[in-house]
Amino acid sequence: MNTSKTRVVIVGAGQAGGRAAEALRAAGHTGPITLIGEEVHLPYERPQLSKAILLDSEPNPAFIRNANGWAELDVKLSTSSRAVAADVNRREIGLKDGKTFAFDQLLLATGTRPRRMPELERGPLPVNYLRCMDDALALRSALQPGKNVVLVGGGVIGLEVASAAIARGCHVTVIEKAATVLPQVGSAVLSRYAETLHTAKGVCIRCGVSVKRATADGIELSDGTVVLADVILVGIGVEASVEIAQQLGLKGQQGIKVDTSGATGIDGVYAAGDVAEQWSPCHGRWMRLENWANAQNQAIATAKNMSGETTVYEAPPWFWTDQHGINIQIVGHPGAGEEIVRGDVAGGRFTTLSVRDGEVVGGIAANTARDMSVLRRLVVSRKRVSRDDLENPHFELKRSLVS
Length: 403
Ligand SMILES: Cc1cc2nc3c(=O)[nH]c(=O)nc-3n(C[C@H](O)[C@H](O)[C@H](O)COP(=O)(O)OP(=O)(O)OC[C@H]3O[C@@H](n4cnc5c(N)ncnc54)[C@H](O)[C@@H]3O)c2cc1C
Hints:
The structure is a single chain. The chain has 403 residues and is an alpha/beta fold. α6 links the parallel β10 and β11. The termini are far apart. Strands 3-2-1-7-19 form a five-stranded parallel β-sheet. Strands 9-16-10-11-12 form a five-stranded parallel β-sheet, with helices on one face. The chain is globular. It has helices spanning 15-26, 52-55, 67-72, 118-121, 133-142, 156-167, 188-200, 243-247, 292-306, 369-381, 387-391; strands spanning 8-11, 33-36, 75-78, 83-87, 92-95, 100-102, 105-108, 112-114, 127-128, 148-152, 171-176, 204-207, 211-214, 218-221, 226-228, 231-234, 238-240, 256-257, 269-271, 276-280, 285-288, 318-323, 326-332, 338-344, 349-356, 359-366. It binds flavin-adenine dinucleotide. Flavin-adenine dinucleotide (FAD) binds at residues 11-17, 36-39, 46-47, 49-50, 82-83, 109-112, 130-131, 157, 241, 244, 273-274, 290-293, 295, 319-321. Flavin-adenine dinucleotide binds at residues 11-17, 36-39, 46-47, 49-50, 82-83, 109-112, 130-131, 157, 241, 244, 273-274, 290-293, 295, 319-321.
């Protein structure tokens, strides 16, 4: 039960932690809230790190609230504070500096951190990763005109940075070990489109090769070629920050398993955002959702449940990426079914629907943002659709919601 005495501790002062603190107050939680984050910065949203921070004429970091805003909300924000200990019996979180915080309810919003590439780190060139504000500011300074920028990993982060680096006048190479870029999305249409788009903008895309070792002036690849590098950024995925959860005895395949209320297996202990592992009906498996919408909405739903409301969170994965001025939104699991394409792929304005057993299980809207709300509703409703209708360019997509 949540009362005015219920002490909430949130570990992880990123988007999920910050939004959960706000949502707890909005839902009427009057007890103490402590928000613990290891970064020096106030809570912020990360999409700006690979977009505005790299692209704008001046870097202008945006924060969820300023220090006064957190004080007004009566949230005790403890930045530069790494939680290193958790005791489930004493219901206590311990910081690296020895401070402790007792809790009645605990929210773990510890997010993820970049998977590292030690074989490159052993080389003479500095290796960059992109997860926090300081990473983005350092990368921005490194992206000087004429520099050879090598991006290891052709996923969303690598391609967004490729786009920013081209805009800043760099020579850019993307190295992707899979046969195509954006392999995680699973859409052959999108992968082909992204490769064509980036190549047309001057990015050298090298798929099907992996990093062998760092040389004095670049990176040697598995096919024996050497790519010259002044700046190296590795974007090969993330791993969940689960040390605190493990101390509590919480388990998951690759994160912290939660139900649709955000609850873990321990009474009063919840998890939200990138670190939370949820059941995904369109993927048919437990997984972490690494996107802005989940960090926002699952955290808010969990906070409501912590405050005594009953809210079920069951949204399909949805995220967006901006590359060379093209807005691409992805919902569900575009790789799980047969892809139907509508619109003009060559012209950079198209929508795809992935259909499995007569239901839409995923889709992509490239510069067709208005189709996204229909795609999301189709994925959620699992409504049966007609392939003939969807393939008909004159058929209005929204009619598939009613027909
Ligand atoms: C460069 C970049 C661009 C992105 N762009 C997009 C986009 O365009 N669209 C989209 O949908 N999504 C995007 N994302 C993903 C989105 O930002 C994440 O899904 C979101 O940040 C997850 O929020 P979170 O709060 O769960 O985790 P995080 O943002 O990782 O925050 C977790 C916080 O917890 C802290 N922490 C961890 N362990 C401890 C500890 N023991 N003690 C104290 N503090 C701790 C971490 O330092 C971190 O500050 C992007 C991510 C990145 C990195």
